[in-house]
Amino acid sequence: MPLYKDQMGRAIELVNAPQRIVSLVPSLTELLAHLGLADRVKGITKFCVHPDDWFRNKARIGGTKTIDIPKVLSLSPDLIIASKEENVKEQIDQLAATAPVWVTDVNNLEEACAMISDIGGITASRDKADRLVSDIKDRFGALEQLVKLHGPPLTCAYLIWKDPYMTVGADTFISDMLLRCGLINAFAASKRYPEITLSDIKNLGCQLVLLSSEPYPFREQQAQLIQNELPGSKVILVDGEMFSWYGSRLLAAPSYFKQLLYP
Predict the structure, then answer these.
(1) From the first residue on, what is the mean pLDDT of each consecutive set of 10 residues in the chain (263 residues)?
(2) Which domains does the chain show, CATH number per domain?
(3) Are the C-beta atoms of 233 and 207 separated by less than 8 Å?
């Protein structure tokens, strides 16, 4: 029986290529669609909004942190795909007692590409996964060349939450995306998702403040209020999926970053 190791170093056994997959991660649901696994994915979360026809038609098994475990098990999954970052360990452990659970741990582009290849391997879609990885690397390579043509990088803050304001530290996937955009994360010295104030942003001399559409959905009203408090910074609303989804969405991210920062 083949053994596969996930990104947490956990070994799972799969007799055959899985035919009844449940995805607990929105960005990986979109990846499974890109790999052509529509008939084999049986359950997704209520936050798996891409692709739209999956969101409307596939069984929903709760939220990423509020998994309906009986509903998952009723689907008789032979593979569950989860995330260290997005799912709750106790729920994953409970599911793993019954079905193979593949857990991802993605903090940068390299780990995302490795994860895509691995999922391609365990779902018998390696060729599509490898082509996807190649295209992603090509597009980020072109972005890197564009970044090199511009002047010194801007110092930025990326806000993911309000009341309290929260940002991202260096050990996050979002921070890696900022770096590849040619930006300096002003809070890189912090761990994961620290609480901050607008005064902290001002004191660090942030030239750019990016307000994410998720998990907190910043809107124009909040952007204007923050801009008024930070007249020395440029405040921009951004698509959080482009900065935080680490599946096939990475194909579109470099083009989005170019339009956003280097139009």
Answers:
(1) 88 93 98 98 98 97 97 97 97 96 98 98 97 98 96 95 97 97 96 96 97 97 98 98 98 98 92
(2) 3-105 (3.40.50.1980), 133-261 (3.40.50.1980)
(3) yes
C-alpha 146 chain-centroid distance: 23
- 183-215 b/e (C-beta count within 10 Å ≥ 16 → b): bebbbeebeeeeebebebbbeeebebbbbbbbe
Q: pTM to 2 decimals?
A: 0.95
DSSP strand pairing (234-238 vs 208-212): parallel
Which amino acid, 161? W
User: How far is the CA of 206 from the CAs of 171, 220, 235, 241, in angstroms?
Assistant: 19, 20, 10, 23
Taking the C-alpha atoms of residue 242 and residue 88, their distance in angstroms, rounded to an integer, is 24
